[in-house]
Queue: 4 jobs
Job 1
Amino acid sequence: MTDLAIDTSGLAKTYRGRPPVEALRPLDLQIRAGETFGLLGPNGAGKTTLVKLLLGLAHPTAGSATLFGRDIADPEARRPVGYLPEGHRFPPFLSARATLELFAQMAGVDAGERPGRAQELLATVRLVGAADRPAGTFSKGMLQRLGIAQALMNRPRLVFLDEPTDGVDPVGRREIRTLIERLRDDGVTVFLNSHLLSEVERVCTRVAILKDGVPIRMGTVEDLTRQGRAWRLVTSPLPPATADALGDALATDATEHPDGLARSLVTLPDRAALNAALDRLRADGVEVEAVEPARQSLEDLFIDVVTTPATPA
């Protein structure tokens, strides 16, 4: 059995028109089983097109793709898949319980297991107290949680979540994040599409940023947000001679905070140079409180790369 949940080779989609629209340019993407993968990009970048191709909702113009080794043209490839679409709708007259039992039937869950599975998922997404209320009376956050429950009905090995925290309050976002982490711990592959970059940064093992149908960044969050060979230092105040000795390595002046400690950013060629700088600090009587690799936020990286000319990853 393959260890890849998703494997694409030259997958592309062009919509006919005058002129034609290249919604997704040839894409090679491998997502390992058990990964939590985040797909990012501005509107029109090709994110929805990629998901539609993988789920058989659109047909590729070129290339190929597999889900757990099965070609996406094979309906059986989608049997172990769950999907939460953006802007999903449920019959407003059905209760949450009836909605889940309906999706259980469509997912092929045995009739005898449907009530129990529905109750289990209502508990998972904290909707037990509203189980018999019509979905038409639900808030946006409640509808999102019901949508996640239906996506998990068939106990998927791969689940696509499109904006799962849309309209959800901070408490609900944390609960959804915890649920995603639990899925990851259970070995479920999660394909996350979200504009809440802080949430993606917290839960995803790898991310890709699409722009104009092209992946322009791909890798772990840690690797993508690391700012070269830079470190943030928290120390006692730096004597002027020490700051002068660091010279250009001190990317920003050491700023003293009310707690009496100084925060500074140093850029050095390697770890050996960092240790030499720390030795100089200690020799000058500077007390070192903390040293950590400097990172920019995923949001900062995203804005940087989508506002500059695209260079394929």
Note: DSSP finds ten helices and 14 strands in the chain.
Job 2
Amino acid sequence: MTNRLDDAALSQLFLSARSRNAWKKETLPDQTWRDIYDLIKAGPTSANASPARFVFCTSEAAKARVARHMMGTNAEKSLDAPAIVIVAQDLDFARKIPFLFPHNPDVQHWFGEPKIRHDTAFRNASLQGAYLMLAARAVGLDCGPLSGFDEAGVDAEFFANTSIKSNFLCVLGHGIDTPFDKLPRLPFEEACDIL
């Protein structure tokens, strides 16, 4: 891949994109969420482990179930959106490695130690959550990522008796609020080194 994206694409993905706080009340087709996942799953993860699990809460009932675990005004500002996505990680992701990494299925044994398993699941699911936001923006949606929620409550509500744990929430749809000006970011010299 040698072609740089044009300025309009870079702006849509990064430069003009903002986290949104109010949403057009609409229902989007299930194919929208499938299209987004088809983009997410193409992104790299460690040993192709793909530990993220996504729950697209699109019905009023499902959105209410997740919203009751949100803190502050997060619930009120999220319910109109077409989807509230629970981005989670499967701590038992290694059992899928023989399928996902067929040329070396023994890689699943790399993740036997609980700390390595947890760190790998969390790190790579977080990465896949970032892919979710970029994929949503790529198909023309806005995002509202949230960490203000009761993780234990969401886990009990959606993942009881499983090896899946919530990571963060991301509201998806068409934002209707006036976005804030982009907040400051650290300059290269403060955030980076070239060695």
Note: The chain is about 40% helix and 15% strand.
Job 3
Amino acid sequence: MGKIIYVTGGARSGKSSFAEKKVFESKKEKIYIATAISFDEEMKERVRLHKVQRGEDWITIEAYKNIQNLLLEYKNRDAVVLLDCLTNLVTNNMIIDREVDWDNITQDILRDIENEIKNEVDNLICFIKDSSLDMVVVSNEVGMGLVPPYALGRYFRDIAGRMNQLVAKESHEAYLIVSGLELKLK
């Protein structure tokens, strides 16, 4: 049964560095799930810097959907998966390949979108628990700031917050990172 470690905190809090340290400490084969999509030069540079920081000995999978299917070939390996990050997974599943008027969306459509995202997260958690893989999940803490003034921001915050709760509940360990300092939550 795979172990899940959840790491959350604000932007630039040191979450990814802490998560990478946890992966390195495991002494297992390393698999990186990159959920970000490089739309512009700034994001391409961030991705490049993350790759340099991690080093060459990682298997990298770029995906935000059906991740468990992409991990099937590694299911029985002695490896640890670093999913960085859950909030990008939520964002991409909310926006990519959708034509949604977020200012006029019905609650039924919003509920369907959230259920699709929840299914993605549930499927990945179940897959990890039923495998020999461990997984470290990085996510932004989205509930400590101001309420977004626009509908899409509020929907994102709510869905991401609920996905954070889901992963935190299912995790074996959970950490909050603030200014590079970690607080073990469980």
Note: The mean pLDDT is 93.
Job 4
Amino acid sequence: MKNILIVLLLLPLIGLTQTLENIDYISPFHNEVAAVKKGTEWAFINKEGETVIDFRNDLVLTKTDNENYPIFNSERSLIASKKKGITYFGYIDKSGKTVIEPQFLNATNFKNDVAVVLNLVKKQLGGNELMKNVVSYHYFEVVIEKDGKINQYLTEDPIHITLTKEKMKNTPVITSKLISNNLVAVKANNNKWILKKIK
């Protein structure tokens, strides 16, 4: 009698399997997860087909194998958020939790636990009676670690910008490239390359 009772209690749970239907695209696996698309939203599944991050619309697509889809690398995936018409980039972990808030003007996927981002800096210039708060914005190309901490600056001179949606119609371009576990190629003003070691 006990065995029949246990079987009756477990029977509904045995039948609970997750089925994803009406999927528009399924990517190859990267970092043990694959991206799946339904409509305009993306989710991530594990190798058992279980959804590990539910469908959302803030994941950033990466061109991989002549296709565009979000990926995980070094346990991080890019997300984007618009504020006052300007796109900012950040990262989530494999639970879907935002671990680095969208704050960068552009960002690469992580590679070997580091990423290259455009770090925005706001500088208060003062003010007067007519203009109470006068600020200046500029950015640097920097290498960040998985927690968002800046590892090192790649550009010495700041790049000044006007931070309005009218002036920022396109995302600024990252010119530096991670080329190995400990090397980054930085494009100089003369269009030549400088190799730097990642600290």
Note: Residues 1-17 have pLDDT under 50 and may be disordered.
